[in-house]
Design goal:
Length: about 260
């Protein structure tokens, strides 16, 4: 998850190394966020918001922010509902999300990014709603450590040719599978493979990606490798969205959220 995108995947894990991606996709909140930054409400929208929310607002800026905040909350709940429908239709027994604990702060990269991360990123509302739905439908819900999930997902699974948020979701799914097996079901011995997978088991995928980037330096683990990438800003590990990606309106034409269903493209 990030303020602009939520990537998801349904993965059938045979073991830590072998898996099948059943379905995958992504929701984009970028248009909604951009609208809140730039778009002014029409008089009709302002009056409708006052009527629905009974807001005594005189400032157009306050009305605009309230409108888009309410819109974002609504869309986020609809996304959680949509994902639960996917989980039920695919008979998933485990839903995994990243356990994000991000405090509001000045990131020293401009007011735009600060507002995007501190105000627009309503991750807790999303995960809480998803958790509630899992409890209702009897599906196990897990939060896992998010550290380095984007890098490991993009580096290990890049041959799938799926965009960054979806590859990261696959890595989070692996962590959920491992945590569930090691600590909940206790069907596997405990090992330090939840955040970092075994290098030996993923040896072929690692070497394939190393050849792609032309990396010959030695490293002790994937986190060590991550910092090799940080030393060279030209090495971009994130797999971008394809230029011909087919985004569609989520739910209805009035939605500011778009969805990408890679599994049907």
């Amino acid at each position: 998850m990030n303020p602009n995108y939520i990537g998801w995947s349904v993965v059938d894990w045979h073991n830590e190394r072998d898996f099948d991606v059943v379905k995958n996709g992504c929701y984009s909140f970028k248009k909604l966020n951009d609208k809140q930054f730039a778009l002014k409400l029409t008089k009709k929208q302002r009056e409708e918001l006052k009527r629905k929310e009974r807001l005594k607002l005189t400032s157009k800026a306050k009305i605009k922010n309230a409108y888009f905040s309410n819109k974002r909350n609504h869309e986020m709940i609809e996304v959680a509902k949509d994902l639960m429908n996917v989980a039920k239709s695919c008979q998933c027994h485990l839903v995994v999300v990243e356990d994000l604990n991000i405090k509001s702060q000045d990131r020293s990269k401009g007011k735009h990014l600060n507002r995007l991360c501190n105000s627009f990123f309503i991750r807790n509302a999303f995960t809480n709603n998803l958790n509630k739905r899992c409890n209702i439908d009897g599906i196990k819900f897990l939060k896992v450590m998010p550290a380095y999930s984007s890098f490991i997902g993009n580096f290990l699974y890049r041959s799938l040719n799926l965009p960054d948020p979806i590859l990261a979701s696959i890595e989070l799914g692996r962590r959920g599978y491992e945590f569930n097996a090691q600590y909940i079901e206790k069907s596997k011995e405990k090992s330090k493979t939840i955040v970092q997978p075994s290098l030996l088991k993923f040896d072929d995928l690692i070497h394939k990606s190393l050849e792609e980037f032309g990396i010959k330096e030695s490293f002790k683990d994937l986190i060590d490798l991550y910092y090799l990438f940080q030393k060279d800003p030209k090495m971009m590990y994130r797999v971008p969205f394809a230029s011909d990606s087919m985004w569609s309106k989520f739910k209805c034409n009035k939605s500011y959220v778009s969805e990408l269903d890679e599994s049907s493209s």
